[in-house]
Amino acid sequence: MIAKSLNEGVHPIEVVTGNGSFGSNSNQLYLPNGIFVDLNFNLYIADYGNNRIQKFQLGQMNGQTVVGITVPETISLNGPTAVALDADNYLFIADTRQHRIIGSGPTGFRCLAGCSTTINTVDTTLNGPRSLAFDSSGNLFVSDRGNNRILKFVLATNSCVMSD
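Predicted structure:
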């Protein structure tokens, strides 16, 4: 493998979204954190300062708020730092200032981890989760920053019991 500097290419740096000033308009971000690009090249941004998840379609400078207090039938966020989609296109969010992981599903949004108001180091509580990612088996990994650990949430598989 040959290492190349980013400065050696012919590709200029391109602003994909955000106009350089903070704000809550559709073309603005305020302390953007985690990003996720789906298979259709839609860009999802955890917009920390605006307490929302923004979705930008390929080539568009104006985004759509897909999660946040301004979107009916979603959930309020407080300092989201990471966003990811699973294989079924459901959103998962590290809601850092509320010390929880949020997930969407067929019935809407729900808290998956850190759902109590207690912050400590037991497995069911989180302290400032910052990032999350799925592995190829669908297991969810979460950086639990305040507790100095990485958690793995094992994929729950559907099972079928055969009767005679």
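Summary: The mean pLDDT is 86.
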